[in-house]
Design a protein that fits this description.
Largest sheet: none
Radius of gyration: 17 Å
Structural class: mainly alpha
Bound molecules: cytidine-5'-triphosphate, magnesium ion
Number of helices: 6
Shape: globular
Strand content: under 5%
Distance between the termini: 37 Å
Length: 174
């Protein structure tokens, strides 16, 4: 098999795993106290809103960091593919994904957009861009890897929503 192809798939997957895990584990485990403690910003609107919880945030970062740590311990090749320690890189990706997610919610609240109301591209891709930016000191995606990750994330979002619609978890297929 073409070694360039193997390198591409390995690197893109290693980048995607902590980013996706972080968001999905926050969704699975997120309930209870909001991380902004219900506080408002100077504009009288919520700082982040009830959609960002302490539990979800901790679960997201902890599980994705643990996954990266486990993968780096089991497969030393991760460091070769990325030219960086994957345990550390995965943790940076997760922290960045959360930071991007918080920044997105902060911006939405300032614009008067309610919790859960979606903003096209910001909701789907913000965490990917922010995560990769946080990881930048350790590893940098190539242009192709970056474009692939964005396109794949959008596609996964569309397919995920359609499945949720067919499974009657969501009322609309988007
Ligand atoms: N979640 C959480 N903690 C986080 C991120 C997400 O508990 N740090 C959970 C919340 O239950 C949230 C759900 O995952 O409702 C979906 O996440 P997201 O779409 O990011 O939040 P929204 O509810 O859409 O809120 P917002 O409008 O602020 O994005
Ligand atoms: Mg949302």
């Amino acid at each position: 098999m073409n070694p360039d192809f193997i390198l591409f798939v390995a690197r893109a997957s290693l980048m995607a795993i902590p980013l996706y895990l972080c968001n999905s584990m926050a969704l699975v485990f997120g309930k209870g106290k909001p991380i902004d403690f219900g506080k408002n910003f100077t504009d009288g609107k919520r700082l982040l809103g009830d959609g960002k919880t302490i539990r979800g945030t901790i679960a997201g970062i902890a599980i994705s960091s643990a996954a990266a740590l486990a993968l780096s311990a089991i497969f030393p090749e991760t460091a070769v593919f990325l030219n960086a320690n994957y345990a550390l890189y995965g943790t940076l990706l997760a922290i960045g994904a959360v930071a991007g997610d918080f920044a997105g919610s902060f911006a939405k609240r300032r614009m008067g957009i309610e919790r859960g109301e979606s903003v096209f591209l910001l909701d789907q891709l913000g965490f990917v861009v922010a995560g990769l930016a946080f990881g930048w000191p350790l590893a940098q995606p190539t242009e192709l890897e970056f474009i692939f990750l964005l396109a794949f994330t959008m596609l996964a979002h569309v397919i995920g929503n359609r499945i949720a619609f067919l499974a009657k978890i969501k009322k609309v297929p988007w």
